[in-house]
# Entry
Amino acid sequence: VQLQASGGGLVQPGGSLRLSCAASGFLFDNYAMAWFRQAPGKEREFLAIIIDSGEMTRYADSVKGRFTISRDNVRNTVYLQMNSLKTEDTAVYYCAGSWTYGSPRYDYWGQGTLVTVSS
# Structure
């Protein structure tokens, strides 16, 4: 099983980035997929989740209206489009897969990609 996150980097405040997470080794289209982040000295924070079919999503209040989660079940990839980025969005971003949408348990985790928002 592998979840390979990519797309992180340095961006100015107000800018945009799109993160990708390519999955392999499990039945991707049977899993809800989510994004989390962890900033230095802070706990891991849930950001967004998308159901296996892609028809339902949920967001944390901190990113609602700025971030969009989506998935491509042909490419076995989940995305996080991040707009209007703020300095407080600086963190390592992780993707994760859960057999059950809405469950607090995640079965698979990616290795993380660093996003730095700075002028």
Remarks:
- The longest strand covers residues 17-24.
- The chain has a mean pLDDT of 96.
- The CA atoms of residues 41 and 91 lie 10 Å apart.
- DSSP finds no helices and eleven strands in the chain.
